[in-house]
From TrEMBL:
<dbReference type="InterPro" id="IPR036010">
    <property type="entry name" value="2Fe-2S_ferredoxin-like_sf"/>
</dbReference>
<feature type="domain" description="[2Fe-2S]-binding">
    <location>
        <begin position="83"/>
        <end position="165"/>
    </location>
</feature>
<feature type="domain" description="2Fe-2S ferredoxin-type">
    <location>
        <begin position="27"/>
        <end position="68"/>
    </location>
</feature>
<keyword id="KW-0479">Metal-binding</keyword>
<dbReference type="GO" id="GO:0051537">
    <property type="term" value="F:2 iron, 2 sulfur cluster binding"/>
</dbReference>
<dbReference type="Pfam" id="PF00111">
    <property type="entry name" value="Fer2"/>
</dbReference>
<dbReference type="Pfam" id="PF01799">
    <property type="entry name" value="Fer2_2"/>
</dbReference>
<dbReference type="InterPro" id="IPR001041">
    <property type="entry name" value="2Fe-2S_ferredoxin-type"/>
</dbReference>
<dbReference type="InterPro" id="IPR012675">
    <property type="entry name" value="Beta-grasp_dom_sf"/>
</dbReference>
<dbReference type="InterPro" id="IPR051452">
    <property type="entry name" value="Diverse_Oxidoreductases"/>
</dbReference>
<dbReference type="GO" id="GO:0016491">
    <property type="term" value="F:oxidoreductase activity"/>
</dbReference>
<keyword id="KW-0408">Iron</keyword>
<dbReference type="GO" id="GO:0046872">
    <property type="term" value="F:metal ion binding"/>
</dbReference>
<protein>
    <submittedName>
        <fullName>Nicotinate dehydrogenase subunit A</fullName>
    </submittedName>
</protein>
<feature type="region of interest" description="Disordered">
    <location>
        <begin position="1"/>
        <end position="23"/>
    </location>
</feature>
<dbReference type="InterPro" id="IPR036884">
    <property type="entry name" value="2Fe-2S-bd_dom_sf"/>
</dbReference>
<keyword id="KW-0001">2Fe-2S</keyword>
Length: 174
């Protein structure tokens, strides 16, 4: 079995993973299952399995990644992987709770982790403006140039999700 070493939520972890073939014909298990089954990460969830809903989103080196389709051999050794499990009282988490943005909460992992990567990237690039409601909606629908991934909430709490993102962005930008 192949082995991968990453920094998971700030801590170095290593474990084997299933892989077959080599080179362009190589295939390996998905990052989602490796994180959940070998490292006890329960934030990222299996939703659709085809990168459409966002429930499995994690950050790999700061970028939102759909872990349900990302094969582990394509994640660089020593990459920084962040999951919802590693956040502790983050402004996004607090805002989602405060405005009750998650009805069933199945989508919350994807929403929080995707938005976190987006907001941190904006801030790192010097954009200190709180995103407008339209920008937040465009990000969540995949309509922004910097992200073509959409995030789906089947319960229809999008109005509260937008409110939570705006509230958290204001706190993150203080």
């Amino acid at each position: 079995m192949a082995e991968r070493t990453i920094r998971l939520n700030g801590k170095q972890v290593s474990s084997p993973y299933r892989s077959v073939g080599t080179g362009e014909g190589q295939a390996s298990e998905q990052l989602l299952y490796w994180l959940r089954e070998r490292h006890g990460q329960h934030g990222p969830r299996f939703g659709c399995g085809v990168s459409q809903c966002g429930a499995c989103t994690v950050l790999v080196d700061g970028s939102p990644v759909r872990s349900c389709t990302r094969q582990l051999h394509t994640v660089p050794d020593h990459a920084e992987v962040r999951t919802l499990d590693g956040l502790r009282a983050h402004p996004l988490q607090r805002a989602f709770v405060e405005v009750q943005a998650g009805q069933c909460a199945f989508c919350v992992n994807g929403m929080v982790m995707g938005v976190l990567g987006w907001l941190e990237t904006r801030i790192a690039r010097g954009n200190r403006a709180v995103p407008s409601d339209d920008e937040i909606k465009d990000f969540l629908s995949g309509a922004l140039p910097e992200s073509d991934d959409n995030y789906i909430c089947r319960c229809g709490t999008h109005v509260r999700i937008v409110r939570a993102v705006s509230l958290a962005a204001k706190e993150m930008l203080r």
